[in-house]
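Let us practice reading a record.
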Amino acid sequence: MRVFVTGATGWIGSATVDELLATGHEVIGLARSDKSAETLAAKGATALRGDLDDLGSLRAGASRSDAVVHLANKHDWANPDESDRAERAAVETMLAAIEGTHRPFVVANGLSGITEGRAVREDDPSPAVGPGSDRGGSENLVLESKVRGIAVRFAPSVHGAGDWGFVNWLAAAARKQGFSAYIGDGTNRWSAVHRSDAARLIRLGLEKAPAGTRMHAVAEESVATREIAEALGTFLGLPVRAVGADEADEHFGVVGGFFGQDLIGSSARTRELLQWTPTGPTLVEDILSGAYRV
């Protein structure tokens, strides 16, 4: 297939491009800069200049392809309404370009805000509906459209060497504050998945998942936040201690609000449906082996 990938040089997107190319697919990758375009070209992908606000480029990329993988997001923490607006407009534009073709369209989402008190399952619908909701309600928008809509919900930690996401922010906070912290008693839990396993799942979904599938990129269902903090402390040679919920924002910054939550999901149905078996290292193994070395 010729696959249009947004976020093609991002953390998950770059691994997805590698996975698609290695298994014989063609890739058109959205590139926001000359450097990103050069990176894609060096891999053997075709670069399409543009960003999430360039609806013309998004329309062209989708219409020229046999499938769409939408991984880009503005992640404007200071202005989440703008991120949600841009996400909605981008997804509507790409869907309109392939509406009625039954081409696969994979859209990214997270596990947060879907259920409380238990792991999110694949049959749990996202409560985000409509333009003003989280991520512009893009998961439901895709699943309800006349394409082969597929949602991939990512664990809060998609880890590996070079990760610049949440765990990298936790490590940066530990270095800055002089100790690695967890919130309260540290029993809040996160799911985790290695980046290579997430990329392989996206490829399997494109190839085999039926319309309406929700895939969970979750290798480890439950890792205690205290265990994450202790692994970071061990690797960084820093003490480990608790901080109160009222201290979390000061210690961690933006990631503090997430680190105090249970963000867990089951991938049992995903594994059965797609014969997906994660093989990458665990989150703690990655931390202790130096994945978050400066």
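A brief commentary: The chain has a mean pLDDT of 96.
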